[in-house]
């Protein structure tokens, strides 16, 4: 009788945990399946019992990392009634998330940092688009495109050295000013 594949828990979770650590530390390209399985204490065949490829594993690692992140931000963003309300609620959450990310970022390979940043924006885009639709923002551009413009613009702002030097009130005003310009253009 053929053995039924175990798809959750146990060694699968251990492989995911070890892979996350190694991907963050060494980057995707420099982390091999053999490195992961050596640390797990299993054979290569065990890896392929759970995952079809290293790409599939990396996707699961990133999915796992973003599950809680997505839930937390979605809850905050969807409860906002205006751009000011959004910034008021988002800034403390952003500060907390950056602090948590800073704890793991120290050894994180730059390629993984870029992938995580891009995935963050990708995860938030549909949520922001939904909020823009709820705010009844009218534009010839689709809400998804407008959400992308807002997210990428805000991301460029909050990751700049100048933004880091601002006090909290200046940060809020800076983001509000940017959002106001983008949303005003959307209304024209």
Description:
There is one protein chain. With 188 residues, the chain is mainly alpha-helical. The chain has helices at 10-26, 33-40, 44-50, 54-78, 83-105, 110-134, 143-158, 161-165, 168-187. The chain is 78% helix and 0% strand.
Strand and helix map with partners:
Blueprint: H1 10-26, H2 33-40, H3 44-50, H4 54-78, H5 83-105, H6 110-134, H7 143-158, H8 161-165, H9 168-187
Helix pairs in contact: 1-2, 1-4, 4-5, 4-6, 5-9, 6-7, 7-9
Please summarize what this structure is.
The chain is mainly α. The protein has nine helices and no strands.
Helix content: over 70%
Count the helices. How many? 9
Give the class from helix and strand content and strand pairing.
mainly alpha
As a whole number of angstroms, the C-alpha radius of gyration is: 20 Å
Termini separation comes to 67 Å
Give the tags.
188 residues; elongated; disordered N terminus; 78% helix; mainly alpha; 9 helices
């Amino acid at each position: 009788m053929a053995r039924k594949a175990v798809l959750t828990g146990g060694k699968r979770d251990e492989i995911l945990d070890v892979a996350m650590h190694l991907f963050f530390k060494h980057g995707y390209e420099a982390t091999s399946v053999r490195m992961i399985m050596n640390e797990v204490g299993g054979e290569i065949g065990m890896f392929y019992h759970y995952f079809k490829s290293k790409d599939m594993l990396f996707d699961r690692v990133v999915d796992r990392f973003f599950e809680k992140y997505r839930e937390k931000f979605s809850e905050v963003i969807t409860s906002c009634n205006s751009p000011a309300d959004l910034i008021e609620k988002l800034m403390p959450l952003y500060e907390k998330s950056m602090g948590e990310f800073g704890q793991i970022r120290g050894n994180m390979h730059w390629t993984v940092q870029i992938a995580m940043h891009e995935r963050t924006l990708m995860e938030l885009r549909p949520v922001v688009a939904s909020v823009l639709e709820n705010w009844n923002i009218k534009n010839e551009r689709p809400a998804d495109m407008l959400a992308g413009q807002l997210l990428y613009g805000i991301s460029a702002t909050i990751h700049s050295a100048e933004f880091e030097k601002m006090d909290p009130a200046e940060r809020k005003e800076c983001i509000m000013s940017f959002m106001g310009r983008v949303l005003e253009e959307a209304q024209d």
